[in-house]
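Just curious: can you write whichever protein you like plus the matching structure tokens?

***
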Amino acid sequence: MTKILIIDDKKDNRISISEMLRAVFDDCVTLTAGSGPEGIEKAKMELPDTILLDLLMPGMDGFDVCRQLKFHPTTCHIPVIFITGVKTDTETRIKGLDIGADAFLYKPLDRAELAAQVKVMLRIKEAEDELRFQRDQLKKNMHDTRKELLEAEKLYKTLFMSAADLMFLINLDGEIIEVNSEACYIMGYSQKELISNTPISINPAFEKKLNAMMDIIRNKKSAFFDMSFPTKTGQQVPLEISCQRIEYDGQHVILAIARDISERKQASLEKQKLESQLRQAQKMEAIGTLAGGIAHDFNNILFPIFGYTQILMKKCPDRQEFQDYLQNILKAARRAKDLSQQILTFSRQSKHEHKPVMLSPIVKECLKLLRASLPSTISVKQDIDSDIGLVLADPTELHQIIMNLCTNAYHAMRDSGGILDVRLKRVKIEALEKSEHPELAPGQYLNLMVRDTGKGIDSEILSQIFEPYFTTKPQGEGTGLGLYIIYGIVKNLSGKIDVQSQINEGTVFNIYIPAFLKPKSQDSQDMPMSQVPGGTERILLVDDEAPIIEMMTFMLEQMGYLVTARTSSREALDLFRTHPDHFDLVITDQTMPELTGDILFQKIKAIRKDMPVILCTGYSEKLSHEQAQQLGIDAYLCKPVVLCEMGAVIRRIIDANK
């Protein structure tokens, strides 16, 4: 059972803190006091495990209460956490720590932070209680040994040598006269080496601490402190040291008991690391939300560009010059669509579609984009085999891999210059090579190599470069996610990424992606404009963007359909409710005021169950493709929609419902 005392002059604060603690600790019993004197008496009577103390209280403030608690022998070991609603300055915090406070918390309290601090205090108290228990036991054993000297000496030796803590006997001149096995093991010295030394000769920085410790022991007979000691190999070991003046072999000596607190320090560092990662994750989540909104508006802007360009291509089939211009516009619009997809990929809100793609054009395009931004001190070499076949992947992800690796190479060479070498070839991995590539199955692979002549990567951190949030770049220049994302993409493609690097000799990344051997069937977006299917059915078109309504109406009418358009989902529903048999198909946007597309779909189905519905969206955080299928929506199209694709989907849905 955990007992926690809350000292605060405000009743509401005591109640709210008690509720937070009981929500976190199942076996927690909270004690409360409305004033400093009352809190001191309760602390002496109940001996709680931790005290939460308000800093500013009438009469006796938190400093006076803490001072009295730490002075009294029955309460001096209880951890005290100051709670204040005023942001304290450094001088105030130092004053609080000097009189014995263990931590500060600021109102309003965060339940997670409160729980974390209380847990730390409970662990500290448990460790201190254990240490005091062992010290008391040792005192008792030493007292008993005076009755029977020979037996006591043997018992002492046994306890001393087999203790799990590091134990030293030091005379008042500062010389080590005895040491146990654990101390020899942790410090890396033999017993003879330690006994022939002094703590100062092992660690010169200990001289000041040793002198201060001697002064304390002369006055109080005991001292307690933390300090790092070097092992024989130079490794620093953090120790929690308790010193007691005792009588040994007819002389006064210091018994120093040291506990290795490396795990505690490591836990503290891990906590800080996790907190840092949490803050970074929250930033990335905010950026992702913003990216999703940008992508939605971007796709709505691209939709008319796609639509009117394809309409012009259909209107001018005999003007080859116009066709070339329009094809270039369409190509640029498709790149913009891919860029929008990259934004959603970055925000982790897009599901990737793996399809057969040529890797060599993507590599060449990335190098062309990069070349313009690289300084003249960095030259680019490329050896790209164009006739190497296909890979089954998402083009945006491939683009992301190449741009990330090449950008990292540039950063490694931007101060000194160098060569960026990119190669792409097809390789065959045989079963006999399995030992070199244990992650890969035998077969055909496309090997992408990106090499730089930069400063290289230290071997000590080479194994960490694919970890999330790990970066060697200065703050503000990197998120630590680039190589982590690349690693995930490559693994998802059943591939492998290798890295070799040496300081001042550069870095080489090799990526292996399985080759795709099946031919790709013609995509609907590559269908000639003359083959776009049409019809004469009646379509209700709903979108809150007037330019999109105008463009889609024109597109659908060019395909022969009779179109009724509305920019208000509420008006569209009223129209459908009045004339439910007047339409053969409903095409609706998802993100709209009043009624979103999925809600409009449900209301339309409630009126006419057999009405087919196609839902279009630039980006929807609320509704994914899978969720649309579960709702029963007949088709889910992502803006900007290619004219050929829309024509084919409309025809398929209408024909299937006849």
Q: What stands out?
A: The longest helix spans residues 262-315. The radius of gyration is 37 Å. Confidence is low (pLDDT under 50) at residues 475-480, 519-526.
